[in-house]
User: Fold these one by one.
Assistant:
Number 1:
Amino acid sequence: MSTKSYAERAKAHKNSAARLLLETIARKESNLAVSVDVASSVDFLAIVDVVGPFVCLVKTHIDILEDFTPQVISDLQALSKKHDFVIFEDRKFADIGNTVALQYSSGVHKIASWAHITNAHPVPGPSIIAGLSSVGLPLGRGLLLLAEMSTKGSLATGAYTDAAVQMARANQDFVIGFIAQRRMEPVNEDEDLLVLTPGVGLDVKGDAMGQQYRTPREVVLESGCDVIIVGRGIYGKDPKLVEDIRAQAKRYQDAGWAAYLERIQATTV
Ligand code: S5P
């Protein structure tokens, strides 16, 4: 369990994307990331603008947008400056090094040019990190490895998760942490691998397609995770209900921060 504050960890971190995230969390008193999984660019940007003040990070699935143009990226970057949040493209790369380097740098989306953080499945082995870091490291980006998943029946458990942790530990210049359901205990003082956790909801326990939800308190206080990732819990009722989205974002921000304060107090007394 991490006994250090986000602000202390920001000062010590060697990766600039991780530092930016930790500084943003401390500055805004928010460990909330919102996952904006909608198909229309207008809805996407409107939701980002509403939740922006409450979040440390916005998580995108840019390939969901059916009317994508590069203007969406310019608008997203402007909102990131306006509201002070980090951008994480949830691309879940999973191919050989050469292919992921091309997918990360090129194509329609040119992810490396705008996403501070992206993620990858460890399934191909360490070569996926070599491929992605050849593009991302010179740009000051950070990578998360999917060490666990929130879904029922996930295969990312046991020896697979342990191997993902070893891969991260061996590449801490570029790998800044994990998508996982619990903290992976550090092996030494200088190690700081962040844990960003999806599958978070206050009102329901899952969906009809295998998603499983835990509360911010379970995730941050009991499992020691650093960032809660919330999607439909915030905008799921109706992407156009601006007032409700704002209220839900505030509710999750408060719940995530209260759980963090409780964790810090519990570990310092
Ligand atoms: O294990 C995972 C990993 C990820 S990145 N489980 C997940 O749900 N995610 C992502 O988090 C998923 O792709 C989606 O964008 C978000 C959860 O959305 P929600 O609407 O269920 O909160």
Number 2:
Amino acid sequence: MSEMRIGLGYDVHAFAEGRALVLGGVEIEHPVGLAGHSDADVLVHALMDAILGAMRAGDIGAHFPDTDAAWAGASSIGLLARVGDLMRAGGWNLVDADTVLVLESPRISPHRDTMRIRMAEALGVDAARIGLKATTTEGLGATGRGEGVAAQAVVLLERS
Ligand code: MG
């Protein structure tokens, strides 16, 4: 019988001037980007933590520490590909993943499918296995005030 595991990931990054906005591996035209050691792709960070969580393999802070200059300005989608390699090396297959971005702006729907494809390609899975939604918090809290972006991800992994 195959072994199934679920994993949950969550991340938040603050908006900052002079930064590109990269979400789901896609650079989006926006007046501000997200602050962070890497490219601060909050959606990909949540997805990586969900996968590592399902593998019981720690978190992205352990694998790609922000104290390590090697990861300064790193492309998070490239790190996701590394997590995909770890996943396969451990005998795991990604059965399904769903994600949500929490932000007031920009609008995600024009970029949704490109982001899903970009993340699926990094993981070597069909884009049908990666879901993405976006929601606002109706003006409430830090994301509601437009101070940053939060993301959540849940995955199901299987190993036979
Ligand atoms: Mg992060």
